[in-house]
Amino acid sequence: MFVTFSSLFSFSGIGTSRFNIPHMDKAVHFTFYGVMVVLGYLAIPKSREQGIGNSKLLWYIVLFAVLYGIIIEVLQHVATADRHGDLLDALANSTGAIVGMLAVRFLFFRVPSLK
């Protein structure tokens, strides 16, 4: 909900930050979608995972995040007056989702050593 609202709401009357960091919005997109994938994976109860493998479930979450990011960018372009869709934002969203998937795999899919 937060991502949808902040993506489609007009912030034209609200002051911006004093700091002018180039491409900061891309870093925000990357971070939001990476966190979305990690939280999406953690939000699935363990009892539901038994019907579907962890890896497949993670791919579904990433696919949802990537498609959601693309849809939001299209909606910004066609449904808002002062916002515009950006291909590079969609790329940052998708890259963040993939890095979020890699983080989940690194943190939760490791096989414990026998030592």
UniProtKB/TrEMBL annotation:
Could you name the domain of life of the organism this protein comes from? Bacteria
Pfam entry (one): VanZ
| Keyword annotations from UniProtKB, A to Z | Membrane, Transmembrane, Transmembrane helix
Q: Where is each VanZ-like domain found?
A: 21-106
* InterPro entries assigned to the protein according to its UniProt record, in alphabetical order: VanZ-like
Which residue ranges run through the membrane? 27-45, 57-78, 90-108
Concerning NCBIfam families, the annotation shows: vanZ_1 (NF037970)
PANTHER family given for it? Answer: DOMAIN PROTEIN, PUTATIVE (AFU_ORTHOLOGUE AFUA_3G10980)-RELATED (PTHR28008)
| The protein's name in its UniProt record | VanZ like protein
Q: Give the organism, scientific name.
A: Maribacter caenipelagi
